[in-house]
Amino acid sequence: MSDQKTPDIIYTKVDEAPELASASFLPIIQSFASAAGVSVGTKDISLAGRILATFPEFLTEAQRQSDDLAELGQLVKQPEANVIKLPNISASVPQLVAAVKELQSQGYALPDYPEEPATDEEKAVRAKYDGIKGSAVNPVLREGNSDRRAAKAVKAYAQNNPHRMGEWTADSKTRVAAMDGGDFFSNEKSATLAKEATAKIVLETADGETVLKEGITYPAGTVVDATFMSARALDAFLADEIAKTKAEGTLFSLHMKATMMKVSDPIIFGHAVKAFLAPVFEKYGDQLDALGVNPNSGLGDLLARVDGNAEIKAEIEKVMVERPPMYMVNSDKGITNLHVPSDVIIDASMPALIRAGGKGWGPDGKEADTNCVIPDNSYAPVYDETIKYFKETGKLDPATAGTVQNVGLMAQKAEEYGSHPTTFEIPANGTVKMILDDGTVLHAHDVEAGDIWRSASARKAPIEDWVQLAIDRQKAEGCEAIFWLDENRAHDAELIKYVKPILEAKGVSDKFQIMAPREATRASFETIRQGKTSIAITGNVLRDYLTDLFPILELATSAKMLSIVKLMNGGGLFETGAGGSAPKHVQQLMEENHLRWDSLGEFCALGESLQFLADAKGNEKARVLGKAVDAATQGILDHNHSPSRKVGEPDNRDSHYWFARYWAEALAAQSDDADLAAHFAPIAKGLAEGEAAIVGELAAGQGKAVDLGGYYHGDAAKTAAVMRPSATMNAIIG
Description:
The protein is 46% helix and 18% strand.
């Protein structure tokens, strides 16, 4: 047994549905792994855990929590790292505020989130909270590039059991709207640094120079970008699209990534809220300010703040009637696209709409064609071309479709657009400059007050590692492979300068294509329509988008992807899929005691993690365990034991019973390790003979509301009681 301080495998503690599922599944993993001398520990990267770790000075000794994210950030740089990472909350401000309030109600004396910090103390608190917002976890852990693909068993199951797809027609009014200028795409500048440099970002105005950020260090060979979105152009675009949507008779929808792009996209979202309710803001702007309204927080927060003001509420209702109907998050509850910035996340919302034949839910509870507003043109063409393609060809057939795998550049915070301390809402007209320590002005932009300026970078070592990973994956698959890079985009042009020489030096140029995202989108769909495989080799954001788009169309979900991060120093990070639908799953569990979260992503990651452990440490028992995981995963699919969506039917806990049973049966039947076979034979027998009792105990509590002791920070004992309700199974597993 390994030292418990550094377990063989780290399983992350996260949030919402994945964490509820862990309460059921992790005890099974730990019990089975211990038989092979494999220790499985946990590290808390949940939103609540990160909040508590950030403010120890406000907590009692008993309440304090270690900074597990920082510890994991160090571990992933070590060759022995073996981490199974579940999807965590990338918090928007409303989510962060809600989590803080819940923790305060539980007796944690945390400071409030300062919406408008005035004092130095409030500014310091705000800075700490801002470090928790958005995609704060992934950049710390992803010390490697991404290899995402559908596991063979999962893909075969999807083809043999095709999911429902909405019909596409040539006359569909659904479309994508993006800015034709003034956006991040059109204003982007990029350069590759010849030598190591330190940079500062300054804003020069008529009143002098303001340092926005200093001490930014880049190693030699780093690709450094800078760009901005014009607030004036954005507002004109939004007003125009609202009017066009009304004239076209479609639903208005805005698709952003306010979680990953935690600085830029909430601001853009706020512009959309103001544009949609422009007459209200024009008439009652001062009163709304006095009420603390921040449009970046969404329409839901605004409505809550004006709840006692009948005059403003009446004006809002009047404007909403005059506006086009809005794409809804929940028609029954009146929750609109613009209610909460984190409710409509582009990488989940756009594929779902495309899968549905271009239809979104309107306020009347009916499906309708939709204007999909994606302001920035960097990646809007991917969705635009997808919609145009399906209008021409009709829906994709999951029974015959091939698959698009992904190799994504993301190591060492590559392409972290709009989500970090080099993104700013410009306070005054002037010029933003990136100035290197030798006085060189690397990039400069003339900007106006309200513009959103951002910089991002990608380092040389991750880029080279990414290209090599692409070469390895193409060789393994022997299929089409496309670098999704646009030679007419500043950043992509710099990456191409890396890609081409490496491919030529390795003698594999003929195995790869380089195509702009729009053209690559169509080429990839044409490939998979023929039942073939394509590898999309992309930057960080497209990695995120495409590993939802194609899996949702191919498999009906992105939660079942095999997601391997080959850490640059030799370790392994095994991700388990997307968590975008997790909030709805938690709501259903709390109301009906039914969890429809599918742990198939966890099953796939566990198998890969055990095989990696066997290779890294020579633990052959771990290899046997991993092979048996693959057999159990196949058993879940072959016998249709994935969770049902409806209360009263088998759910996540049932799937864990069947997984444990198939896993134990595979271990008992194998001949590679007699000790493991002997250990698991009685467990397999007990799980099989106890089937009726276990299934009955799992079903007994369904249909009733349950108390977890919290949403963001549940009570461990209460959660365990809900998620492990079978005394028979618990006695067998331990």
